[in-house]
Amino acid sequence: MAVPNPGEPAAGDPSPASLPRPRWGFGAFLLVEAVLLASAALIGAILHSGGGDMSVRNVLIGTMLPTVIAAGTALVITKVRGNGPLADLNLSWSAGDVKLGIKLGAVGLVVTSVGAWIWTGIVGERNAQSAISALVEGQPMSVQAAIVMFLYLWLLGPICEEIIYRGLLWSATERLEWRKEKWGRLAAFGLSTAVFAVSHLEPLRTTLLLVISIPIGLARLITGRLLGSIVAHQMNNFLPAVAILLTALGIVEV
User: Fold this and answer.
1) How far apart are CA 211 and CA 192, in angstroms?
2) Which of 89, 175, 199, 205 has its CA 20 to 30 A from that of 29?
3) Side-chain half-sphere of 78: how many Cα atoms within 13 Å?
4) How deeply is 149 buried, as exposed, middle or buried, from its count of CB atoms within 10 A (0-12, 13-18, 19+)?
């Protein structure tokens, strides 16, 4: 199946021109980012209030909940101030988008692997480690907890992050008054790629995250919809999620 033109509605979707202009923009994204940071800080403070080492349950909660809350806030904003997430974030089903997402995600896996290898050689293995890898290191989990972490990193986490960055931020950027439509798409691609990398708050890995996010952003840019970038992100996260799963189970030592 051929991939539709960017922004072209999938079969059965209403035309964007027939819908009222959403009443949200960059302010909505900034609010969602504030919710993400505030919820992470609050949840972290609550989980650490008892002192001592973080339990497996607390690691799972502290890792997953802030991103889920932020993505949920983004969805609520599109519902209350716009036409809902399907229309406002260009989230619709397309087999062509899935296929392209898989292809670009596979490319991203290769790029990520090569980039991580190079980056590890530059900054050292300890500094190249992701924040989540550092959390699970030396803290074996039960099979159930490890599977929950794996499914979040592989499937749910990418959905939430894509809603925030290549959904909310991308759409807000694209709706600005640009001389040509393509400039809006390119600006959205560049800004969302940069903000996605910086927002992880891992300074030593920001350059690597920029490289990782390019194939994901290309899926959104080429298709004009969010599904492609979600699939590409999930593909890109698969092997790292497997590695963290094996580490969490104590099968592989880092």
Assistant:
1) 13
2) 205
3) 23
4) buried
Query: Which of 2-11, 32-41, 158-167 is the least confident region?
Result: 2-11
Residue 104 lies in a domain: yes
Q: Look at residues 142, 162, 130, 138 and name the one whose alpha carbon lies nearest to residue 63.
A: 130
Domain count along the chain:
1
Give the structural domain span for 161: 91-248
Distance between CA atoms of residues 105 and 230, nearest Å:
9
Q: What is the dihedral of CA 115, 116, 121, 126, to 10 degrees?
A: 150
**This prediction's pTM:** 0.88
DSSP assignment string, 45-75: HHHHTT-SSPPHHHHHHHHHHHHHHHHHHHH
Q: Is 27 a member of any domain? A: no
Angstrom distance (rounded) from CA 218 to CA 99: 13
* 101 part of a folded domain: yes
Residue with tokens 């406002």: 88
Q: If we measure between CA atoms, which residue out of 78, 224, 58, 34 comes closest to residue 141?
A: 58
Tell me which DSSP letter residue 177 carries: -
- Largest Cα span, the chain: 56
Distances (CA, A) of 133 to 36, 130, 138, 160: 20, 5, 10, 19
